[in-house]
Amino acid sequence: RALPPGVTYGVLRYLNEQVDLGGADPVIGFNYLGRVGRDGAASWDGWGLSPEGASKVAGAAAAIPMPLPHSVELNAATVDTHIGPRLQAEWTWAPSVFGAEQVERLNGLWFEALSGICAHVRQGGGGLSPSDIAPARLNQEQIDELCRLYPVDDILPLTPLQQGLLFHAVTTQGGDEVYAVQVSVTLSGPLDAHRLGAAVRRVVGRHPHLMARVSDQFAEPVQIIEADPTAPWHYLDLTGSDGTVDVLEQVAAVSSAERAAVGDLLGGTLFRAVLIRTYAERYRLVLTNHHFVLDGWSLPILLGEIFAAYQGQRLPASVPYRRYVNWLAGRDVDAARAAWGEVLSGIDAPTLVVSPDHVGTGRRGVERLHLSAQTTRALVDLARSSQTTLNTVLQAGFAQLLIGVTGRRDVVFGTTISTRPTELARSESMVGLLINTVPVRATAQMTTTIADLLSQLHSRYEGTLDHQHLALSEMHRLSGHDQLFDTLFVLENYPVDTATLSAEHDWEVTDFDVRESNHYPLTVQVIPGNELSLRVEFDSDVFDVTIIRRMLGWFQRVLAAMVADVSQRLSAIDVLDEAEHARLAELGRRSVLARPTDTTGSVPGLFAAQVARTPEAVALTFEGSSLSYRELDEASNRLAHLLVEAGAGPGRFVALLLPRSVEAIVAMLGVLKAGAAYVPIDPAVPVARVGFVLADAAPVAVITTAELADRLDGHDLPIIKVADAQSYSAAGLTMPGPNDVAYLIYTSGTTGT
């Protein structure tokens, strides 16, 4: 099996005039003609070879008068007869080279070797070899070790997304339920629990990779497919409950236990099923799996097979998951790297809504938004008129939301796509994990219009359409960043038709629910329909529900602006509602913006005027804390005195290596009050990029935090922390001139500045 097809040798050997093998042809030739006869490869409906005729097949080639290609040659075939298959063999040799006794001796040794192989196999010998499990790369010793531990039927490498899931499991030390997917189906009517359990086991037997075991004990992690796997199946009857415990609470407890059971990727069972009888003729079928073995597109297929098997219907032949894995292994990785490298080139920093220092995953919160049928139709019409897809339109809206939230004009977010190849026969009916997470990049200048953004996203998608299989870790390497995004936007176009599932059954599906999550702090799922609905899952340790609701409002207004005028600039879209505008006015900012521009003042001068007007008004709010204009003025004055002492002044630069924080605002004001210009450096950029900016800008000092100070190792610059200025005077300094430089910013060239 490890050898390439024999015909390729013939093409290279005999059709290539420049071939030079340099040696003599082999002395021995061997041809196995396969299995022929009644049920063999040479049989056709209505007729077949007779045993007498079949027995002559092996010698047919030798009967043709032509020069011998080898000194001795063996032609063999397995022939079906009325007493079973028989091996027929015919030896041909050159009498000038070999005698009959020598060939007879050779024939005896060959049959002796065959008999030894048969005896070995009868005793349980044989088994998998490295060629059997390709493209997995294990040696024979490693395969044998796994076979001693498990009843191995096959060994597969991990797909790109499976590699990412394993990395997450290892870094969280297992037992993490975040990638546990749970489908809950309510069935109303008479139901045979035993038959349903048998149907589940039958379907799992058709797709044994659902019960895969993950092994990372070797250099290359693999998934082990066991022979005759049995899915854990449980039946729980709650109708006999004494009423002291609420039925729904019991269902919730069982469901939670099932999720915990599949949460351990390296040691748990990755697929489980339980049927809970809640009332006389009402049941809850709960299927739980780790995302490692099943994607959302497979759910309708899996459920359809289970219910068809329950009815005793004949199921079509299953498509082995190995076919998909083999297809992935045959992709052109270099071409994929080139395509994605072009898309990801020049990204200065990842797009993160959470600090890079944030670790762990908090309790998951969920908020929903339903778009009207009118808005949904308008979005579909926009996609059609722009010659793109509804998904691209929605992605453009989310990109604009990220641009507004992060303040960046070059943003990246993730999306999940199906990688079921059209060239792979029956891929649409495959069950398993056939998806990947890929980045979506959107860049905007001041003049970029909605139409420009739609065209940009569509073009980038088309350019990577044939390369969606590339691992996200590989894309990180191409971009030069350990991480590209921490938000996910997904269009889930795999709706489950409950009416179809209920057809031809005595019961009907009366409720259907899917519970799934991931480790990203913010995920937006779009569920298609006549009225689009959005499900936003978020990390409650990071986001307050009020912020999420506000963001959903912004997103809704972005979509409204898109369908209103596709030619308008992104920078002209106002996402704030009346209440938010009123809040700005309350904070005192609107009154400043509404006044005629003072071209003779500086930023510190304008700020000082606002301090004089509203000293106790809130100037800055961040993560539950706030500063008044007076407090912000005094803090920045103290820092300005410290900076002047360090050499800051007009024509000088001060670098800011700070995360988004109160300290960052104080630092910017402090630098401006010192008369210098600030140079912002994103903490997420590579160390090499930090070094380049510092070398090129030549700042007199760097303001940073204790946590980020080690990123400045090797640079001979004064390091200042905002807290260092506590002992300095809060008195004001001489105001800088309006024509003094305010800031110096380094971009990737995508912002137009």
Short recap of the structure:
The protein is an alpha/beta fold. Helices cover 36% and strands 20% of the residues. It contains 24 helices and 23 strands.
How many separate helices?
24
What's the architecture of the largest domain in CATH terms?
Answer: 2-Layer Sandwich
Mean pLDDT rating: 87
CATH-assigned homologous superfamily of the largest domain: Nonribosomal peptide synthetase, condensation domain
What is the CATH topology assignment of the largest domain? Chloramphenicol Acetyltransferase
Helix share bin: 25-40%
Cα end-to-end separation: 59 Å
Instruction: Decide which structural class fits the backbone.
Output: alpha/beta
Number of domains in the coordinates? 4
Overall radius of gyration: 35 Å
- The dominant shape is globular
> Regions with pLDDT < 50 over 5+ consecutive residues?
38-48
Tally of strands: 23
Q: Note the main sheet.
A: 5 strands, mixed
In the sheet with the most strands, the strands line up as 8-9-10-5-15
Percentage beta strand: 15-25%
Classified by CATH, the class of the largest domain is Alpha Beta
Domain AMP-dependent synthetase/ligase: 607-753
Keywords: Antibiotic biosynthesis
Protein name: Non-ribosomal peptide synthetase
Domain Condensation: 154-584
